[in-house]
Each structure stands twice: as structure tokens, then as C-alpha cells.
Amino acid sequence: MSGSNNMAHPLHLDPNQPGQQGAYGRGGGGVGEYLLDRAKPYLPPWLLAGGTGVLSLPAYGMWGGSAAASAGLTLASVGLTVATWWAGKSTTQQRRLHSAITVAAGTSWFTAAALAGPAAGPLGSLYLIGAPALAATWNIRQILRVNADGQTASADKGLLEKVGLAKTMVTSAKVAPNKATFDLQLPPGELTPDDVAKALPRLAGAFKVAKNAVRMTTDPDDSSRASITVVPNDLLKNTVAFPGPSHAGGSIADPIVVGIYEDGTPAMLWFPGDPQAGRNAMHLIVMGMTGSGKSEGGITVLGEVVTRRDVIVWASDPAKAEQTLGPLLPSLDWAALDMNSTKAMIEALRASIPARTAWLAKYGYKQWEPACAETQADGSPGMPYLVAWFEEAAKTIRETDDDVFTGIAQEARSAGISLVISLQRASGTQVSTDSRASFGSSWVFGVRDERDAGFALPDEALDAGAAPHTWKDKKPGYSYLVANGVPETFWATPARSYLTPTDYLHWAAVTFADVRSACDPVTAGAAAKAAGPAFTKRTRHPLPTAPAAPVQTGQPGLEGWDEEDGPLYLTEEDDVDDDSDVLDDDGQEWIDPEQALPEVRTILPLGARPAGPPARKLSKGEAQQAMTDLLAEFEDEGRTEVAPADFMEHCDRFGRSRSWVSGEVSAMVLAGRLRETEEAGRYEIVPANQYAA
């Protein structure tokens, strides 16, 4: 794109644009060279006119007076004129007519001069008058293409004008490996960012990319400015494995990392508010059609929440019961898996709000903060944050009241409670308008149509190019996150949620059991009074078998968790006897060779290993460095393309699984070290010197 209303390539130099003529032949200097440089753009019509006159001389010598040449030249003249008219149908009518007249006049004169001679009759005068006149008309058109503001119009009025953004200037451009951002200056008083938003689908078609690959952000201080972002390649198409808890054992006030954006930036959300950051506490709508990955996204969030020290979770799923929440149940303070207990949970929430706000006021807190969960100055126990999560909330609303969550959503923030409802379609027939207005944040996965997207995403995100209906259920995990604390520039940026393994949830339930808070007396008392036995006798699900063989990974809080294969632990049946009297003379454990082998409970597929002692398993950082070194080796060998299989041949060097290697290859693509090719699964190596620049 240039700084005009035509959408040329950012690196293209147009000799007709002011300030760029000197870019051609700017070598030594001098008046003559400068004048020639300035005249170059205007010479082609004059050279064509002169060439026509010169060529007429040998043509007359060859075809003068020939009847056959007369017929051939006449047909050629008519054919060229018709071809010019046909070829100009995609240009303006004015340019099309001008071109046809020029060709018709030039070929007619050339035909007559070739047959009768250039100086015969009036032909010489016609040439001396007509040729300069026609050349001058093209120079005049060229000069008039440059307006007083220094903007130039392309022959077809430019791409921006084609999509309805005439007179718009591209003031700057930023080009990354898979993203280009263009800042637009709109004509004041004529166009607004709303006009840019309406043009986004047409721009996507012009760029030959997906509809949601072209997005817009507005300038909050100037309504005549906007930015367009174009992302040509989808870097989220590979499943993103959950990397482990982001703030293991930390506070719920720390961000929850739920996935990654298309540029590799972590996608995060926050539950409690933060006055210093200007962020309110969050109520969240999670929406997406069946198969869009909505429930998996919710599991990822809750899998992070249960690793924090100052939060409790009440969760409900009256439709699927344990199918979705099953692995999380041991980590939850209260799980409502039928409609009666769900209704009791709602009553308990209503009763907890005034009790919790009274406690906060008593100890001088204007809103919940991490200090609330600590023992107070008078020795009273603290009050943890409360996340109330309602899966399949449409069933709950349908069997209670469409306003069932309205009052809770309006009042719970000030009590240190975040309300989350997850459903397929937040339409007016399922969630009342008042309830939707109380949920300031939304996490939207693939939906059926554009109307569904409007139920949860704000107009700003939709106008900026957010289009979850283009995914439907074809791209599970793809989503848009519009939440408190998320910059508006990311509202229309696609993200993909992590895929969280069940083994991780079991490990988190066990590992952080001593870290997680218990329900505080204030909340428990209010809930018991409102819900009765539904709360006091709520089912407490037992923890899975505790990990007994922790593996240190180098990341705090990940003891016992193997980054590729899940938690490593022994089962209850694995009776490990640590008595010293079963050691042999060398200090090694003595094993009776005659004893029966234990029953096989689990079969693990193992790849072939080289003979000899097993190699030390590299840390994550060492394995990543080994991957980087291997890529450099491929480059030194002269390779230009690689595939994940090339790296997997060296898995033993990393001590990592094939899935981990594949994920690291995806990370190299996101970082710009590799570039996708037209062949699926093949990646072009970006030279190290270009990547470093």
C-alpha cells in the first residue's frame, strides 16, 4: 500500500508520485540528469508518436501502392481498435474511450502513410499536428492524476476506492511475518470507522483471505482514523496443548491463561477487579454451538482456578452431570449435578451476597482483594473469592426463570463473587436482556450464524471484524475473548483455547489439595441457612490417588507433572516398601527372582530405544535449545524446507514425545523461524540472519 488511496505494495515505488521520481537514476546529480529524471514519466507517449512516424518510412518502401497490404493494414487497424476497446472494459469509461481514439487515429494514419507515403497530401501536416496533440493529452491525464494534496489515483481508482473508501489515505504500514497493519486517515466529515467496518468483507475478498482475517481497530481520540490488520495464514490450526498452570499456588487475582492468540500472545482473563488497573470484577458468558470446544475451554479455565490458593468454586451442570465436570469434582467446593441442587446453589448465592458484603465492610474492604483471604487482624479467618460456574445454563434458566441470574449478576461483584454461565446460544428467549446487560465479559466460540454472534459479542468487536459464525463447529477451540482487562485491540483477534488433558486435572486436584481454600464461615453460614442440607450435606468427591513419584520440570508448582505425558505417580496398589533390610550387599534393592510377577494393569507403548543406559531427560529449556540447534543443522546442510517428522527422528536427543516436538515446530512458525508452504505439513526455513533482523 502506498500513502494514497490506491492499494499498491508497500515497497512499490510509483514514478508518478511526488517525491518518488528522484528514486530512479539518482546517482551523480547535475541539472541535465535531474531534468531527464523528471521527464521520464512523461516520455512514453512521445516515443510512441515518434516511433510511428519513423516506422512509416520503411513501411511505405515495402507496401506502397499494394492492394493486399491495404487490406491487411486496414484489418489490423480495425482489429487493434476493437481489442483496445474490449481490453478497457475494466477501466473507467473515460480512459477506455481515450485509449480507443488514440489507437484508431494512430493506426489509421500509419495505414495511409504506409500505402501513400508519410508526406503525401495532408498526411505530413496531420502527423505534425495530431501526434504531438495526442501525446500531450496523455501527459495531461498523467499530470491531473496528481491532486493538490499529493494523493494519486490508480488507473482503476484503487482498491480502497473500489471497496467504498475513496479519498482514504494509508499513513503507515507495519509488516510482520504473518500480519500486516495499515493505519488509515479517513476524509474528515465524509467517512467514519463505521464505513471501514462495512467494507471489511469486501477487503477480505480483495485480499483473498478469510472474512475474519481482516480486522479493524479505531482511534479512541480521533474518529477520522482507523487501523486495518490483515492476517493471511491461520497459525492456530494446530491443536494447542495445555502447558500447565500459569500461576501454580498463586492468587486468583493473577491472570488465568486460557490459550493463545494468532500472534502467539497468551490469551488471559481476570476474575477479581483491580482498582489500580481500572478493572472491574468479571461476570462471564461462555457461548458456542455443540462441537465448538466451549466446554473444553471452560475446563481449561477451571483447571487453572483450582490451582490457586484463595478461591473456591461452586459449579453446576444439571444436563450432563459428571460428563463435563467429572475430573474436576474433587477440586470443587460444591458441585450441583441435578436441577434440585442447582436451584439450591442459586439460593445460596443470593444469600451469600449480603453476608459477604457485610464482612468486607466490617474489615474496611471496598471490594475483594487477595488480603481478604488471609487471617484478619482480629484473628478471624479470611474469605476466599468465589467463582460460581453454571454449565448448560440454558436448562437452568428454562426450568427456573429467564431472570434467575439477573439479580446475582448485578450484585455479586461487590461481594467477591464472579458468575459464569455457559450455554450454546444466549438469545433473548433463553437469557433476558437484563441478564445479558449484567455480564460485561464474553468468551465466544464458533456459532451458527452472525445473529448468534451478536447475542454475546459487543458491536465494537463485530464491527472490527469478529466473525465466530465462520467457524461454526469446524474449528474447535477457536474463540474471541472480550473481557475486563483484555485490550480492545484483541477483541476481534482470534484465539484458540488450550486442550487440557484429564490426567492434568487429576494431578491438579491432588497436588493443590493443601493449597486450595475451604469455604469460609461467612459464606458457609449463609449458604447453609438458604440451601439447608443441599449445602451442608453436599457430596464431597474423593481425591484421585496421590502422586508418589514427582518429576521436577523446572517450573514452580509442576512437581509430579510431566510436560508431555501427564502426571507421573504410583497407584494405591503399588506398595513401595522402603525398609533398608531388603538391600543387597551393594546397597541395591534385593528382588527375589522366584517371586510371581505382578498383574499387568497398564500397557504403555514404548518406542525402540538404543542399547545402553537411558539418557538424562533434558529440561524444557534444554530441549527447546536442542530443537533450535537441530534446525540450524538442517539449515547448514542446505535444506530449505522441513517437516515435523524430520525433528521426530531425533526425539531421543530431546527426551521428549512426538506431540511435544510437533508443538515446538508450531511455536517456531509463530515465532517466524519457519514459514508455512502450500504443502500441508511442510515448512520453509527462514534464514537465521533474516529471522534475527
Question: Layout of helices and strands, plus pairs?
Answer:
Elements: H1 31-39, H2 44-63, H3 67-87, H4 93-116, H5 123-144, H6 159-162, E1 169-176, E2 179-185, H7 193-207, E3 214-219, E4 222-230, E5 256-261, E6 266-269, E7 284-287, H8 294-305, E8 311-316, H9 322-325, E9 334-336, H10 339-362, E10 385-390, H11 393-399, H12 406-411, E11 417-423, H13 433-438, E12 441-444, H14 450-453, H15 459-463, E13 478-482, E14 495-497, H16 502-511, H17 521-531, H18 533-536, E15 561-562, E16 566-567, H19 620-636, E17 641-642, H20 644-648, H21 651-654, H22 658-671, E18 674-676, E19 683-685, H23 688-692
Parallel strand pairs: 7-11, 7-12, 8-9, 8-10, 10-11
Antiparallel strand pairs: 1-2, 2-4, 3-4, 5-6, 5-14, 12-13, 13-14, 15-16, 17-19, 18-19
Helix pairs in contact: 2-4, 2-5, 3-4, 4-5, 10-17
Strand content: 5-15%
| Count of separate DSSP helical elements | 23
Please report the total strand number as a whole number.
Answer: 19
| Order of neighbouring strands in the sheet with most strands | 6-5-14-13-12-7-11-10-8-9
N-to-C CA distance: 22 Å
- Radius of gyration (Å): 36 Å
What would your notes on this structure say?
- The protein is α/β, with parallel strands linked by helices.
- 37% of the residues lie in helices and 13% in strands.
- The strands form four sheets. It has a ten-stranded mixed sheet.
- The longest helix is centred in the first third of the chain and has 24 residues, at 93-116.
- The chain is elongated.
